[in-house]
Write a structure and sequence with these properties.
This protein is an alpha+beta fold. 22% of the residues lie in helices and 33% in strands. It is built from 4 helices and 13 strands. A hairpin with a 2-residue loop joins strand 4 and strand 5.
Length: 203
């Protein structure tokens, strides 16, 4: 159960065995805020009827959290980075969560490996803004590969669905794209954004 009157920070979890939705249900049941970067795909045909039967029989439990019903439509939530999720918790809470998921996954640790790594609020906000934007050209990089994309001009998006997002311009696959990172864990690159929609941000 989340503690009262304590500072809450974001932490990253790596969850094994395709259990992110089960862990999400458990943590939200204990009143923790969670975030899983997902893409949503509308189901058709037999996939739609299978999901509808499952939801009718079992409700939105951990196994069925991969489905969202919006009126007559059913969407499937597909994690964009296998087994990655985030939780907002107090310092003592995250230690209990670390024990709770032992054997099922782990909490990302700080550089000195002595305590869970706190994700700066602004990094998390920028990452969520981009990862949840619905931009079909998003590409995700985890851990080692993203080191290659860490430099470039820092910019802010002035208009459009990504308005307010801040990151670095980097050439990826011959195109100039906005890269937004949670250092040491994950980065997301947008599709091409016209330079007219960007403004430079001083470091």
């Amino acid at each position: 159960m989340i503690e009262q009157d304590t500072e809450l920070n974001w932490y990253a979890l790596k969850v094994f065995y395709n259990k992110v939705f089960d862990i999400e249900e458990s943590l939200e049941g204990a009143l923790f805020e969670t975030y899983i970067p997902v893409k949503k795909v509308e189901l058709k045909g037999e996939d739609f009827f299978r999901a509808r039967r499952s939801l009718a029989l079992n409700g939105p439990d951990g196994a069925n959290r991969k489905y969202i019903q919006e009126g007559p439509r059913i969407l499937r939530r597909i994690p964009v980075v296998a087994s990655l999720m985030f939780v907002k918790a107090g310092a003592d809470d995250i230690l209990r969560i670390k024990e709770q998921i032992e054997g099922k996954g782990f909490v990302y640790l700080s550089a000195d490996r002595k305590k869970p790594a706190v994700i700066p609020q602004k990094q998390m906000a920028m990452f969520r803004l981009v990862a949840s934007s619905g931009d079909e050209g998003l590409e995700f990089f985890s851990e080692a590969p993203m080191v290659n994309f860490s430099q470039g001009d820092k910019v802010r998006v002035k208009e459009g669905p990504l308005k307010g997002a801040e990151g670095y311009i980097k050439r990826i696959k011959k195109d100039r794209r906005l890269l937004v990172a949670i250092q040491g864990i994950i980065a997301v690159a947008t599709s091409f954004i016209p330079p007219a929609l960007l403004e430079k941000v001083e470091e």
